[in-house]
Amino acid sequence: MAAPSRNAVGWVRTALRIWRSSQRSAAVSGGSRAALPFRCCYGRGSALDHFLGVAKQGCELPQPSPTVALHEDKQALLVALPPNMPENSRILRVAILGAPNAGKSTLSNQLLGRKVFPVSKKVHTTRCQALGVLTEEETQLVLLDTPGLISPAKQKRHNLEQSLLKDPWKSMEIADLVVVLVDVSDKWTRGQLNRQVLKCLSQFPQVPSILVMNKVDCLKQKAVLLELTTALTEGVVNGKLLRVKSTLPDSKTQKATAKPEPESPGGPERVGWPHFQEIFMLSALNQEDVETLKQYLLAQAQPGPWEFHSEVLTSQTPQEVCANIIREKLLEHLPQEVPYSVQQETRLWEQGLRGELVILQDLIVSKESHLRLLIGQSGQLISLLAQEATQDLRNVFLCEVQLRLSVKLQR
Predict the structure, then answer these.
(1) pLDDT at residue 129 in the model
(2) Which value, to the nearest 10 degrees, does the dihedral of the CA atoms of residues 237, 243, 249, 252 take?
């Protein structure tokens, strides 16, 4: 075999230098950016790929999911486009219900493949029904990401928006399937379904439902999942009694069969729902687990016309996506009730000469103490908020973003 030419050797050395440089850059970034493997796709079976040992399989980069248009009118036109569906089109409208902070928006983002819904550890991050669209081949899933279900008394006590009460019920009216999400890492609430969720399910018993037990990676004792499954389903799944082998030391050979508890004369006083068709246990941050759920949802779709063009990712306007992402950062970095009182006002939204998106948003507070808190020492906090929001916005719009946040005191 003839030795490679000097030009070929030079190409290899150059490529290796680029690869090593990329690895060093990723390491220096301190983990803020994941190190990407060096992938060289100059063509099928290219000489450079051969020298570098890059496999032919998987050489093509995956197609990115649709994005959100930069301007409100273009996004509106995109949402209004006639669906470009095939002859054998299928559709499924999925309502995602759960208690506040169960992980509904995180799951929705993972299913969509891009972050379009705000996520925070604080409750009531999602303030109204948000719609996401996932289109794969002939199937379209319409995801209805709803606010965490709360009681009317709590809404009135904390002066929360009416949408927190109304939107989950609206979702149930149009849903073909309900995903009930339970945070099993919360030991105070995981033992029973949220009362408002149960009320919703009881009001719409004709809508098929599945149980998704989220954050199972946080459980140290996996045996707890058996007890939780029995409680949350009342021991019945898809019309069949659950039969699970107990892992408790005092009942090694016993089988536990749970039976649904009878309803009281005054109405259903249950802790679970005996009409779930299926159960999933996952971590919404684990893409492999989410993929399993996604394939199940795609399989449940029924023949019918799509609602949106395949390029639609969400029905939200770009300004709504931006405002939600900034509010997410406020919730993450401000203490207690402070972020809920911050008003947002977008003063500038335009595209620069080089295609970058330029955004100027005012954050308006009613107290001077909140103003100082939001700015932070030497402006460090407001700079951090802008930096984190900018990165998320770049990932949403797939372009360079220049975001400036200004804090003002309401007069």
Answers:
(1) 58
(2) -170
Nearest to 70 by CA among 353, 362, 350, 395: 350
SS (H, E, C) the chain: CCCCCHHHHHHHHHHHHHHHHHHHHHHHCCCCCCCCCCCCCCCCCCHHHHHHCCCCCCCCCCCCCCCCCCCHHHHHHHHHCCCCCCCCCEEEEEEEEECCCCCHHHHHHHHHCCCCCCCCCCCCCCCCCEEEEEEECCEEEEEEECCCCCCHHHHHHCCCCCHHHHHHHHHHHHCCEEEEEEECCCCCCCCCCCHHHHHHHHHCCCCCEEEEEECHHHCCCCCHHHHHHHHHHCCEECCEECEEECCCHHHCCCEEECCCCCCECCECCCCCCCCEEEEEEECCCCHHHHHHHHHHHHHHCEECCCCCCCCCCECCCHHHHHHHHHHHHHHHHCCCCHHHHCEEEEEEEEECCCCCEEEEEEEEECCHHHHHHHHCHHHHHHHHHHHHHHHHHHHHHCCCEEEEEEEEECC
Q: Are 230 and 256 in contact (CB under 8 A)?
A: yes
Least confident window among 117-131, 273-287, 312-326, 340-354: 117-131
pLDDT digits (tens, 9 = 90+) for 18-73: 444 444 444 433 333 333 333 333 333 333 333 334 444 444 444 556 778 888 89
Structure token digits, residue 193: 């379904």
The residue assigned the tokens 């080089």 is 354
Mean pLDDT, rounded, for 136-147: 86
At which residue do the structure tokens 């995981």 appear? Answer: 190
* pTM, to two decimals: 0.72
**What are the tens digits of pLDDT across the range 202-238?**
999 999 999 999 988 888 887 888 889 999 999 999 8
User: Which residue in 30, 43, 153, 139 sits closest to 83, CA to CA?
Assistant: 139
